[in-house]
Every structure is written in structure tokens, then in C-alpha cells.
UniProtKB/TrEMBL annotation, chain A:
Annotated family: Belongs to the bacterial solute-binding protein 2 family.
Annotated localization: Cell envelope
InterPro entries for the chain: Peripla_BP_I (IPR028082), SBP_2_dom (IPR025997)
Domain Periplasmic binding protein residue range list: 51-306
Official protein name in the record: ABC transporter substrate-binding protein
PANTHER family, per the entry: D-ALLOSE-BINDING PERIPLASMIC PROTEIN-RELATED
Pfam families per the UniProt record, alphabetical: Peripla_BP_4
Xref: CDD domains: PBP1_ABC_sugar_binding-like
Signal peptide: 1-25
Species: Mesorhizobium liriopis
Keywords: Signal
UniProtKB/TrEMBL annotation, chain B:
InterPro entries, sorted: ABC_transp_permease
Assembly description: The complex is composed of two ATP-binding proteins (LsrA), two transmembrane proteins (LsrC and LsrD) and a solute-binding protein (LsrB).
Alphabetized CDD domains for the sequence: TM_PBP1_transp_AraH_like (cd06579)
Membrane topology: Multi-pass membrane protein
UniProt name for this protein: Autoinducer 2 import system permease protein LsrD
Principal subcellular localisation of the protein: membrane
Record-annotated membrane-spanning stretches: 21-42, 102-123, 128-147, 167-192, 213-234, 240-262, 269-289, 295-312
């Protein structure tokens, strides 16, 4: 009983003290809040533990992305800024990813880097992390909630509209095209398709024969395109909205003995090599793998108390007939089924984070 | 088998538990490991969070086990979870409100399940084919209801179901009690009997077709409720969130000793199987395994869970 009341009194004293302190510190914290990034409370000290909550580690794009993350972590370890990297793989299951992020919160990591397995499902667990002062950096597949330190991505709408615009220019605004999409119900694939629509609406001469929805893999895309080639003797262009899809399309044309047509796509090495080999007119952009490294860098910057914008829009690097050779020259540094991404360094990161 | 001491009930239950000792030990070991790695799970909030992550898997595993005990199987568990989630996320913040949303989700689950059951029972088509076809239809409908992740579940409902309190665990206990009650009814008993030996059951007066339809309907109900919970847990709907659950529900049931041919296995085994799958993820995280090692460890644990009881029973027989 006595112990209890002493405890109460000490709490009361502590409260009074904090209230005074808070009143004193008010103008200061106001300034701090303006400078510090979202979710950051300034209680966490270097070296930091970073959690990397991957949705699925098997695809080559993911492996390459994880490569840039571990490279960045190694560099920051040498500077004494990072202590440890914890990696999870939800094996494509958003429900598992929620569980793993919860475990990261339980383990009290300092930062969580996440590619969301679902744009809506992670909202609650991610905001919980944010409430605990954990720096949450979300890249590639984004969550809906804004309770994260930063969302880093390229613009999927722009991806679609730029690709469609190139196709319009290439065909002179007239012709029959096939659109190849990623899986239905996935934000990235929906957004790219949506971005293409206004351009298609404005150019009625471009007739969309049909569309496909497949996983972002070569084999299903090739299969889908093969059956479309049987059905459609006249195809003037392939508006593919994902790298591996384009390679599948070109392979299908090749196997059927049909002459390839102008094709859009991503920086998949296989596509770029086919593009050069078949001598097609091509256009490609990319989701740079170094978004992973940038996210780690941003997390540490935020934890250090430096400002990190709530949204970082990374400009889409473009590969066209003029610049493709510079990419293919570096091809041997990348896996055969991988993505040849543009170069990056700390200066680029600093520039992206200040914009 | 030893001569029955005590009641017949105990003896029967002991026989039914026999193959599962290994699994129970494995689950207990995992839970002990989890608690020692992360003592916070013993706090109310920690316990709530953990059981919330287990709950949907527990429900779909029960839904799958219920069908497998009856000699069926469902390949549309995943899409049906998604459908439950998107219906919840699109109706609950609308004019129907939370109660209306719950009713609509439940009716959908019962209805879809009953349709599958009717086709399987009356047209004598294999459940695996009917539910495979059904999975495309249900998955498509889920995408029509909500083409991309979105929708909303009221925050108070999310907090009530998946907040700081172990509501999910209490709901699970309720479902288990419901199962026990169902097992005490003629239809419940018929479910096992028809799964074990349909002809024999029919000759003993079990209305085999009706039991099958009821099994599918109840399984559908449990599945959409898992979807409803996922919607509450995530505060929103996602038309493809259930996809991995088809395989996980089968894995949980099989780990729990439920056979593919019907009549073999127990619901408690299936629940233990699902708990094993859920706890494994957390334990491996806290052990700090890299993802590649996690794949390997997962496989080893699953093989152990299936092989150990088998080896033990073989030794007992010898």
C-alpha cells in the first residue's frame, strides 16, 4: 500500500516535471517536427537494426534488388551506421507478411523496408510500426496508408502513358496493337494500364485487338502471345507493360516465323538482347533495382534526424534505340534472366531525397 | 490396443489422438521456443497479435478438414476467402453497415458452399474438379466486386476484432465449441460416417447427399468468415489476398493427420497443424534464419511432423 502511494507520488512528480519540460520544449519540438521525417521520434541511436520485409524473394528482380540492399547495408556497416539486417520472405502471402512485420515490431528493429504484398492489407501493421517510432520505408509496391516515413517509387501511370505514347509515335497513330499486362488485381499492373488509357483514347487510329493478363514471366507471356498470333494475322505493335512479357512476345513471334513488330517493355536483359538481335524498334523503361539500396539509405538518413520527404518520385530511366548499346555493354555483370539497371551512387540518392 | 479402462469415450479419444502425439510435441516445442525467444507474446497484446495471425489460417484449415473428413476437398478456399474479404470491405462502410455486411458475407459463404455441395452430391462429380472450376468463378467474382485492393472496414470493427484484445482467440474457442455441438448431432456423425464408408452410411440411414451439402455449406461459411476477419485485420479488402490459403489449408489439415480419403483424422489435429504453420513463421524470424534457410527448415519441420507419428505407430505395431 505504502509502496503503491510512493509510486503514485513519484508518477505525479514525474508528470509535473514532464509537463514543465514539455512547455519549455514546445517551440523546439515544433521546429524538430518540421525537420524530422515521418514516424521518427529521435529515440533511436546508431548503429541501427534494419528489417527487410520482402514479399517474395524468388523472382530474379527481387534477388537483384536484395543484392543492392545488402550491398548498401555492408557499406553502412563499415561506417558504423548499421548493426544488423534482418530479412524475411513472405513467399507471396500478404497475410504472412503482416505476421513478419509484426515480428519485426516485436523485435524492436529501428527501420523496416517493405515491398507490400497488398496495397491495402499492410496498412494497419505498418501504421503500428510508425507509431512505435520505427522508420518505415516502402518502395516498389506501395501501401495505401500515409503513416510511413517515406514511399519511394517510380510512377506506374507515367510508365504506361510513356510506353503508349512511344507506340503511337512509332506507328504514326494508326495500326493494330496487342496490350500485354501483368496479373489482374495487382496495383502495379493496373496502374500502368490505366496510364496508357488516355493516350489510347486520344489516338483512335490505334486499334487494340486484345489484351492479355499473365504473371510477369516469360513462359506464360509467350504462351499467351502464341495463341494470339494464330488468331490475328495482322499485328502492328506490342504494347507490353512489363519486361519479361516483352521477351515472351518476341520469342513467340520468332517461333512462329513472324516478323517482329515494334515492342515496348522493361530492362529485362533477355528482352534487350532480343531487341538488339532481332533489330526491332524498341522502347523500355525500368523499375530500378537500386530502389532497395535507396530505401536503406533513406531509412538511415531519417533515423539520423535528417529530413526525408514522405514521397520520393524516382524519374523513369528510358532505354531507346540510341541508348540500348550502353546497357548491353554492361550485360555480363547481370544475371541472364535479370534486369540491367542504370548506375547509381550516393550523390544520386542525396539528390533524389532532397527534391 | 490396451483393454479399455474407464469409459468408451476416453478409449475412443485415445485411439484418435494416437497418431498425433508427435505433432503435439512439435507444436509445444515451437511454442516454448517462441516464448523464450520473445517473452512479449505472453502479454495480453502480444498474445492477441499472435492469435490474430493464426486465426484466419485456423478457420480455413477447419473448413478444409471438414470437407476432407467427409471425403471431399476444396480448391476454392483461397478465392472464397478473398470474396469474403472484398464483400466485407465494400459493404460494411456503406448503408448495410457492419451487421448487414456480416450477414451478407455469411449468406454468400453458405450459398456458394451449398451450390458446390449440391453439384458434387447430386451430379456425382469429383469435389476436386467442381471446386477447381469454382475457384475461377469465385476468384473472378471477387475481382468484379473489387477490381483492386481498396474498400474499407470501420476502424472500430477492426479494433474490436483485431486490436489489443484476444477477440480472435475467443471466437476460435466459440467455433470449436460449435464444432463439438455439431459433432453431437446426427448430421455431424453422418459427416464422418459418409466420409469413411458412404455405402455403409447410406445403409445405416445417413442421408449421405444431404450431409455432403451441409458439409460444403459449413465449410463455405468458415472460409468467408476467415475472409471477413482478414478484412477487419487489414482494415480493407484485397481481391487476391486469399490465394495462398488454398494450399495452406490443405497443408494444415494433412499435417494434422486428416486423410484425403475421408473419415480419417480429427479437427483438433487440423487445428494443431495450422498452429504449427503459424508459429513456425515467427520462430524462424526470431531465430534469425535467412529466407533460404527458412524454406529448408520449413520443409524439414513439415516432414518431421508427418514422419514422426508414422514411425512411432509402426514401432507400436511391431
Amino acid at each position: 500500500m505504502k509502496a503503491h502511494s510512493t509510486k503514485l507520488r513519484s508518477i505525479a512528480r514525474w508528470l509535473a516535471g514532464t509537463a514543465c519540460l514539455a512547455a519549455l520544449a514546445m517551440p523546439l519540438t515544433a521546429i524538430d517536427a518540421a525537420a524530422a521525417a515521418n514516424c521518427i521520434k529521435g529515440e533511436r541511436k546508431a548503429p541501427y537494426t534494419i528489417g527487410w520485409a520482402n514479399i517474395y524473394s524468388v523472382p530474379t528482380w527481387m534477388k537483384q534488388t536484395e543484392g543492392t540492399i545488402t550491398a548498401q547495408v555492408e557499406a553502412l556497416k563499415k561506417e558504423g551506421r548499421v548493426k544488423d539486417l534482418m530479412v524475411t520472405d513472405a513467399q507471396g502471402n500478404a497475410q504472412t507478411q503482416i505476421q513478419q512485420i509484426q515480428s519485426m515490431i516485436d523485435a524492436n528493429v529501428d527501420a523496416i523496408i517493405v515491398i507490400a504484398g497488398s496495397s491495402s492489407a499492410l496498412d494497419r501493421v505498418v501504421s503500428d510500426a510508425c507509431d512505435k517510432g520505427i522508420a518505415v520505408i516502402n518502395f516498389d509496391s506501395l501501401v495505401n496508408t500515409d503513416k510511413v516515413t517515406s514511399k519511394i517509387n517510380t510512377d506506374s501511370n507515367e510508365w504506361g502513358s510513356k510506353a503508349a505514347q512511344w507506340m503511337v509515335d512509332q506507328l504514326g497513330g494508326k495500326g493494330k496493337i496487342i496490350i500485354m499486362n501483368g496479373p489482374a488485381g495487382v496495383s502495379v499492373s493496373d496502374d500502368r494500364r490505366k496510364g496508357a488509357q488516355p493516350v489510347l483514347d486520344a489516338n483512335k487510329g490505334l486499334e487494340v485487338i486484345t489484351e492479355t493478363n499473365t504473371e510477369y514471366n516469360v513462359a506464360p507471356a509467350q504462351e499467351a502471345m502464341t495463341s494470339l498470333l494464330f488468331a490475328n494475322p495482322e499485328i502492328d505493335g506490342v504494347l507490353s507493360l512489363g519486361g519479361a512479357l516483352s521477351a515472351g512476345a518476341l520469342l513467340a513471334f520468332d517461333r512462329q516465323g513472324r516478323d517482329p513488330v515494334p515492342t515496348t517493355g522493361e530492362n529485362a536483359r533477355q528482352f534487350l538482347e532480343l531487341w538488339k538481335e532481332k533489330g526491332i524498334k524498341g522502347w523500355a523503361t525500368m523499375q530500378p533495382n537500386w530502389l532497395g539500396a535507396l530505401s536503406v539509405y533513406a531509412a538511415v538518413q531519417a533515423l539520423d534526424g535528417k529530413p526525408v520527404p514522405a514521397r520520393v518520385k524516382v524519374p523513369l530511366p528510358v532505354i531507346d534505340d540510341a541508348s540500348i548499346d550502353s546497357y548491353l555493354a554492361r550485360a555480363d555483370k547481370f544475371p541472364a534472366d535479370g534486369y540491367i539497371y542504370s548506375d547509381y551512387d550516393q550523390a544520386l540518392f542525396d539528390k533524389l531525397l532532397t527534391e | 490396443m490396451s483393454v479399455a479402462r474407464g469409459s468408451l469415450y476416453r478409449t475412443v479419444q485415445r485411439t484418435r489422438n494416437r497418431g498425433l502425439t508427435g505433432l503435439y510435441l512439435l507444436v509445444a516445442a515451437l511454442l516454448v521456443a517462441y516464448v523464450s525467444l520473445f517473452p512479449g507474446v505472453l502479454s495480453l497484446a502480444g498474445f492477441s497479435r499472435f492469435t490474430q495471425n493464426w486465426f484466419p489460417l485456423a478457420l480455413v484449415t477447419m473448413a478444409q478438414a471438414l470437407l476432407m473428413l467427409n471425403g471431399g476437398i476444396s480448391l476454392s478456399i483461397g478465392p472464397l476467402v478473398s470474396l469474403g474479404a472484398v464483400i466485407a470491405a465494400t459493404t460494411m462502410s456503406g448503408p448495410l453497415g457492419v451487421p448487414g455486411g456480416i450477414v451478407l458475407v455469411a449468406v454468400t459463404g453458405l450459398g456458394v458452399g451449398a451450390v458446390f455441395g449440391t453439384i458434387v452430391a447430386l451430379f456425382r462429380l469429383p469435389a476436386i474438379i467442381v471446386t477447381l472450376a469454382g475457384s475461377f468463378i469465385v476468384g473472378g467474382v471477387a475481382l468484379l466486386v473489387l477490381p483492386k485492393p481498396g474498400g474499407m472496414v470501420p476502424a472500430w470493427f477492426s479494433d474490436a476484432l483485431a486490436g489489443q484484445y484476444p477477440t480472435a482467440f475467443l471466437l476460435l474457442l466459440l467455433v470449436i465449441v460449435g464444432w463439438k455441438v455439431f459433432m453431437a448431432t446426427p448430421t455431424g456423425l453422418g459427416l464422418y460416417a459418409a466420409g469413411d464408408n458412404p455405402l455403409g452410411a447410406f445403409r445405416s440411414g445417413v442421408r449421405v447427399e444431404r450431409v455432403r451439402i451441409v458439409a460444403f455449406a459449413l465449410s463455405g461459411l468458415l472460409t468467408v468468415l476467415a475472409g471477413l476477419f482478414v478484412a477487419a485485420q487489414t482494415g480493407s479488402g484485397d481481391p487476391v489476398i486469399g490465394a495462398p490459403m488454398t494450399l495452406n489449408s490443405i497443408a494444415g489439415a494433412v499435417l494434422g493427420g486428416v486423410g484425403f480419403l475421408g473419415g480419417r483424422g480429427t479437427m483438433r489435429g487440423a487445428l494443431a497443424g495450422s498452429l504449427l504453420l503459424a508459429a513456425m513463421i515467427n520462430v524462424m524470424f526470431f531465430l534469425g534464419f535467412p529466407p533460404v534457410a527458412q524454406y529448408v527448415a520449413q520443409g524439414l519441420i513439415i516432414v518431421a511432423a508427418v514422419a514422426v507419428p508414422e514411425l512411432l505407430s509402426r514401432r507400436q505395431r511391431a
